[in-house]
Amino acid sequence: MVTQESFLFCRDESPILKLHLIDDSLWQTTTKPIIKKWRVEDLSTLKEKASDDPLTPVNSEPLTSIHGRPGLVKHHILNNRRHILTKDDIGNVQLWDITSTHMVEDFGIVPIEEKSEQLFEMVSIPNWFSLDTKTGSITVHLDNPQCFNAEAYANDAGLSVTQNDETIINFGEKVISALFRNWLKGHKLKPPVQPSQLPTLVFNRSLVGTNPSAKLASVSPKSSAKESLEANDKEDGDVPGAAADSKPEKEEEDTPDPSTIVRRDGIDTKPVDDCSYEVEPTTTVIISEETGIVLRTQVAQMTGNEEIPPWVQRCVSLNHYTSGVSQKITFRLLPFDEKDLPKIVSNPKLSAMRIAKIRKLINHVIGKLGIQLPTTSENEKGSVPDEKERKPEETCIEPENYIQILCNNKEVPPEMTLATVKTFMWKSGDELQLFYRRAPAFTSSPLKYAKK
Hints:
The protein has 9 helices and 24 strands. It is of the alpha+beta class. The radius of gyration is 30 Å and the shape is elongated.
């Protein structure tokens, strides 16, 4: 500055964040995960190297470049509410499973929007977490009771089930239980802290919990969709086999709306569960309160002595939690053509779990109408003989091949859930209406009823 001469020293394609001069070296950081070292020479040498073009830098390449891990700059949450796409500052796109904190696939440098469209699934699952990549890594926030909003069949949630293929799981409960599994092993249950003293929870690949004083109800991790509720003469009936919410505990005052309470089998201790997620041991868990972080640790480092919010403790130890939304959907189920199939005698207004599959409704129609399903050989011949004429070795066709459920005059796949039908096929704020009929191949055959 004494000579009032200046030179373009170096150039970088990314914004420069910081420069630090040490002896004859200049260290530089940018928004990319690279630290560069440049040589600083005396003024006479710089003059010799300087170009006539003022926009040409004196140094074209750094002496040293130290590469760090690329930071995440963008993310997309996929419809299944388990998988997310991330994009780092180099352009690499990766698919992650947040329930297990594992990377599923590395797609390399591709447009993240295009990959998100390719991975789109027609499923409707409530939001149960929030996510950000502000720190350059994945941070998942779980808030009570919103983190317990989403349920799914275990097989659809990436979990293997050994005993019951209709086991229902709650995403939030399973993830929190996986994060605090080591804590539970080393913990001796203590009296819960009073709400006025409660801390707030956070975890990174990350977890944040708030509102720890919410009312809680009891849940069994092996709840099954086979828990049936008979239709009744009240305004709303329940679809048998489509597990629905039960009533809240009477002892509690100011109990939340019954439709937001998840309560299956009341239990006093956490049973052995063969249906669970496994998270990376290095996943960081943070517990914080409004004044700041009170605990930062890793999954593998938990000993059971850590203080955790009571709502988390009850979830991990006793499977007690409250959902933030109703887990039920009300709808009307009517015949598409009464000349083909009659009305169901009970009230057509029904309710069932959001995750109940259309196959349950098909079974409901067959059961309520007392329909006798054709056998496989009858299906080929196009006739339906009486039960006496059936051969012992003959088997009935699948119910979904005989009865169809329609929404807006379109056939609904048997595997689709009620929530997905309402979101993608009904597309209306009005009460969902579904219709049933026989498959076209059977409409010319006489309708047979099973003998009671």
